[in-house]
Amino acid sequence: MSLFGVIVPGRPCLAPTQVTGQAALGSVQSGQWVCDLVNPGEISDLVCFLTSPLPSNNEGAGIYYSIPPFADWEFMGVITNNQPSILLSPGWSLLPQVNQQPVVKLGVSVESAGVLQEKLLTKPPPDVKKEYARRVALNLYRYIESFQGGASMPLLDQWFQRFEARYQRDPNFVMKSE
What we know:
Blueprint: E1 4-7, E2 17-19, E3 32-38, E4 46-50, E5 59-66, E6 74-79, E7 85-88, H1 96-99, E8 103-112, H2 113-122, H3 128-148, H4 154-169, H5 173-176
Antiparallel strand pairs: 1-4, 2-3, 3-8, 4-7, 5-6, 5-8
């Protein structure tokens, strides 16, 4: 049985396979787990979880993905004994280099808590909801700007700055206001 599980809504539950010895693919090394996710552009959310506790509370599992030719791995998040599951919104539909791939590899690697904490600080997972809101606002901005003949739009700039500040405090604030 795999130490990890992966759920993509609407698809069967996956159990990443442990890579051992000669089975290593690209930069995946022995003692790590991988599984394939087909049609990544269709995946808006996925859940990664522990099926049993890690051997030590000083360890965690880093979650990564890789696109063909599967040489480089991008950090996505962390699960630990204290946080045994995570909901990830990878934003692959917004990334042409991923969206157009038939498959991505999801990798899970047991690492020290210190290493994973450093990764969370230096390369936090993307905030897809914020990026979506930013792109909607930018689309609105460009649409309104087209009627102004390219003139600056301080009111819309001010709105967007306020939007970003409120989003930092509460990512769901838009859903609460009417």
